[in-house]
Amino acid sequence: MRTGESYLESLRDGRTVLLDGEAVEDVTEHWAFAEQARRIATMMDRTAQDTTGELTALDEETGERFANMWLIPRTGEDLARRRSGHLAWAESSFGLMGRSPDHVASALTAMAGAADLFDQAHEGFGANVRAFHEKAKRESLYCSYVIVPPQIDRSQPAHRQPEPFLYAGVSAERDDGIVLTGAQMVGTAAVFSDYVLVTQIRPLEPGDEDYAFSAVVPISAPGLTLHPRVPYGSTEDKSFDYPLSSKLDETDSVVIFKDVFVPWEQVFVIRDREMVMRQWSATGANVLSNWQALNRFTVKMSFASGLARKLAELHRIDQVRPVRAQLGGSIAVDTVSMQAVVEAAMRHSEPIAGMAIPGPQYVNGGLNMQRRIAYDAVRTLRELAGGAFMALPSSYQSMVHPDTAADVEKYYQSTGIDTIGRVGFLKLMWDFVGTEFAGRQQQYELFYAGQPHINDVRVFDTFDWQQGVDLVDRALVELRAGADG
Ligand SMILES: Cc1cc2nc3c(=O)[nH]c(=O)nc-3n(C[C@H](O)[C@H](O)[C@H](O)COP(=O)(O)OP(=O)(O)OC[C@H]3O[C@@H](n4cnc5c(N)ncnc54)[C@H](O)[C@@H]3O)c2cc1C
Questions:
Q1: Pocket of ligand 1 (CB under 6 A)
Q2: Domain stop point among 249, 281, 313
Q3: Domain harbouring 40, CATH code
């Protein structure tokens, strides 16, 4: 199986990453990306070495192991196998890496499990979906996706934007493939991935046919450029002052396609508005990938609960009853509720296209809960901290500088822990709740699953209303019987 070293080597493929106007020669060496690339490589190594089933599954036909994120779930046990991989990946980043490889792999795996639907829309495209899934499984590929167009004029459909092909679209068809032109809004972790899935997740309108496609494109494809947002790492070593920002920046990039050629074998949908939507809903891709996201979020909530508990102990307020009630009634309750939702989704899986897909009403409901809980957790941690984050040495240098070290040692101390331990812990916590990295985390939790109101309509559509309606009907029958009697 693919090792960390071969993963890092494959990132040196001539991909075009333009940061501050300049091309990044080697993302594995560049300060903005190297640390995160290294962490992903470590997980690739863990996967390659796994014999327990934590990160891998056994291919019955070949007898070989593969990353369990590519396992097509046929049973509840398969979902449990997938889940153990999701949790291992999430724990590697304390739940802070949203688009770890298992996110988009989940979408592509559900698509492969429902490949017949792609054939029904366009003969032969089901084989493309299956073949790519097999390749990804065999080679442990890392895929990202760009499924939302740029925010240029949201009141107009794709074909009525100020110019054609501002949104990524099929600008030409050739005998051997298609040509993509335009941009997509955000590709999280695209810099670290092998392939990007390019398509749309929002409904398209008549006239938008050029934009109604789905295809996978190597990141190094000629004409594909990545434009990352401001990186949260630094040219200097900030691992003490910004322990999360400096190590776990998964990077979001605008992805621009300048006449990028894509062979037909990598095309899943062409000029089919309905199939572009069905690839998410009818295949279970949306639900399976968002279930991964909720699994990841349970780890993040555990991390938040650990921060809360440790801070309360650090400041000796853990025995104060109102504080216990505050933490019990917020972070603790929210953490177990989220764990329960993820578990319930697995137990109440639904047969979709011959697969066992986690219960949609639990996953969609969980996404709504998660958006609120993510904010509540940060607010609780901030409330608990009081002014602690502001009463910290400006940097590690202040802790070791001969002119300040003694004062820092004396006045920043805490009972029960050494000064460096207290300061380090509070810096960790601030990186979780207050830095630019933390702000981006909040934005991620709010929007990674699309527009919140669209998800809430999905909750309406998938919720089991009938159970409640039956109860009310029974009450009404009893009421009527009472009135008649
Ligand atoms: C950190 C981060 C990472 C991301 N990673 C990825 C990624 O890896 N791949 C990817 O494809 N995308 C990614 N995205 C993009 C994400 O999918 C979109 O941000 C999300 O779908 C919301 O779309 P939008 O940003 O275009 O918001 P808009 O559609 O512009 O909406 C913004 C706001 O306008 C209001 N609004 C707009 N239309 C309506 C309406 N009809 N009814 C009511 N209110 C409305 C709402 O308040 C809404 O929240 C990422 C986003 C973030 C923030």
A1: 99, 145-148, 151, 154, 185-188, 252, 440, 443-444, 447-448, 450-453
A2: 281
A3: 2.40.110.10
Distance CA 89, CA 189 (A): 14
Taken as a whole, the chain contains a residue count of 485
Concatenating the DSSP letter of every residue in 45-88 gives: HHHHH--SSSSEEE-TTT--EEEGGG----SHHHHHHHHHHHHH
pLDDT at 161: 97
* Structure confidence by residue, pLDDT tens digits, 315-325: 999 999 999 99
Question: What proportion of the chain, given as a percentage, has pLDDT over 70?
Answer: 100
Q: Containing domain of residue 365, as a range?
A: 285-469
Quote the pTM value. 0.96
Give the nearest ligand 1 atom to 188 CA.
8
- C-alpha distances (whole Å) from 402 to each of 88, 241, 397, 412, 478 are 42, 19, 10, 16, 82
Is 67 part of a structural domain of the chain?
yes
Q: Are residues 210 and 320 in the same domain?
A: no
Candidate of 448, 453, 454, 458 to mutate for ligand 1, largest count of ligand atoms within 8 Å of Cβ = 448
Other beta carbons within 10 Å of 460? 11
Region of poorest pLDDT, from 9-18, 30-39, 189-198, 412-421: 412-421
3-state secondary structure of 14: coil
Closest atom of ligand 1 to 444 CA is 1
Say if residue 484's pLDDT is above 90. no
Residues 200 and 318 in one domain: no
d(CA 259, CA 161): 19
Residues 94 and 215 in one domain: yes
* CA of residue 148 to ligand 1 center, whole Å: 8
From the CA of 446, how far away is ligand 1's center (Å)? Answer: 9
Distance 41 CA to ligand 1 centre (A): 30
Cα 187 to ligand 1 centre (Å): 13
Q: How high does pLDDT run on average in the chain?
A: 96
- Of 219, 253, 281, which residue sits at a domain end? 281
State in Å: Cα 447 to ligand 1 middle.
Answer: 5
Residue 349 has pLDDT above 80, yes or no: yes
Query: CATH number for the domain including 349?
Result: 1.20.140.10
